[in-house]
Design a protein that fits this description.
Largest sheet: 8 strands, mixed
Shape: globular
Strand content: 15-25%
Helix content: 40-55%
Strand order of the largest sheet: 1-2-4-3-5-6-7-8
Order of helices and strands: HEEEHEHHEHEHHHHHEHEH
Mean pLDDT: 91
Structural class: alpha/beta
Radius of gyration: 19 Å
Low-confidence stretches: 1-22
Distance between the termini: 57 Å
Length: 326
């Protein structure tokens, strides 16, 4: 007679042998900040929480299983979620396409751009998610646009913040260029017909390969599988342009004075080969935050490369552990 292996034991064995499996994952949706947010909770609810905030057009799957597992193995609960306008969270269809001319004019004239939502709203979403899940404080980790949002969580909602890790994100100083390496970024194909999902998938693979830089080049088969899985989970290109507009305005919104008010332990992480955000913009963030630590990862582009994954996670853990003694 065959004995059926319990599913928990099966998952645990896969975890031990190093396969990319999320342990003790629970998925759900909550009402927060006036919208519905889809999330995934990993690890024990009795542990300190690490809240992972994704970048532009990135679903919660942006944070790889190996990244999350390493945090769980080190005693943390991990929450990753879909922003508004992407994945399984609320879509803002009625907002329509951004008025790019009006947005550009407002940036130049330092007036309020016409946006359906801002990065501050998205920071409120993140905090609303924590509240809905009954989490009083968390270690806030964000990458790219998520890094700018994480910074806002830290200074707008200090009562919810244990520590901050800002990855490949600037602090809004207009002296830095919008694009670090224009020649590289110009090779990303323009958006095509949204009905052509095959073209969209090919563009995403090309875009992510270029953003990764020339040192840690992504495995094309794995990257294609990742993009296809995301498209299968949720395909909503309209959200990309609205998130992009919020990110653009957020990039140019100087917030040095706000950064100075952050009191929790902070690590700012940047790649030396980032073709989108210059490393100096990351250094600038760290320079304004008291006792912040800046870490430049050699060879890393604008992504979370597998060879640097453990280094990044260890930096986050090292910074998070400082919060206990502060």
């Amino acid at each position: 007679m065959k004995t059926q292996l319990p599913i928990r034991s099966f998952i645990y064995i896969l975890f031990l042998v190093g396969l990319p499996v999320i342990v003790s994952a629970q998925s759900g949706k909550v009402q927060a900040n006036g919208i519905q947010i889809a999330y995934e909770s990993l690890g024990s609810a009795n542990k300190e929480t690490v809240l992972l905030i994704s970048g532009t057009n990135a679903q919660l799957s942006m944070w790889p299983a190996s990244f999350c597992n390493h945090l769980v193995k080190n005693g943390y609960r991990v929450i990753r979620f879909d922003h508004r306008d992407i994945g399984l969270s609320t879509k803002f269809e009625k907002a329509g396409a951004p008025d790019w001319a009006a947005i550009a004019k407002a940036i130049q004239e330092n007036t309020t751009p016409p946006l359906p939502y801002t990065l501050d709203d998205m920071a409120d979403d993140a905090v609303g998610l924590l509240d809905a899940l009954g989490i009083k404080k968390a270690h806030i980790v964000g990458a790219s646009m998520g890094g700018m949002i994480a910074q806002r969580v830290a200074y707008n909602h200090p009562e919810h913040t244990l520590s901050l890790a800002s990855i490949m994100a600037g602090g809004g100083d207009k002296k830095f260029p919008l694009v670090a390496k224009p020649d590289a970024i110009s090779k990303i194909p323009p958006p095509g017909d949204p009905k052509d999902t095959a073209a969209y998938i090919n563009r995403e693979v090309k875009s992510m390969t270029i953003l990764a830089g020339s040192v840690f080049v992504p495995d094309q088969k794995k990257l294609l599988k990742y993009v296809k899985n995301d498209v299968y989970r949720s395909y909503y290109p309209d959200g990309l342009v609205r998130q992009g507009a919020a990110s653009l305005v957020g990039f140019y919104s100087g917030r040095q004075q706000q950064l100075k008010t952050i009191k929790v332990p902070v690590v700012v992480i940047h790649g030396s080969e980032d073709p989108l955000v210059v490393p100096e913009a990351g250094k600038d963030v760290a320079s304004y935050i008291p006792r912040a630590h800046f870490e430049l990862i050699k060879g890393m582009g604008h992504d979370l490369p597998e060879p640097a994954m453990k280094t990044i996670v260890n930096l986050i853990i090292k910074n998070a552990r400082k919060a206990k003694s502060d």
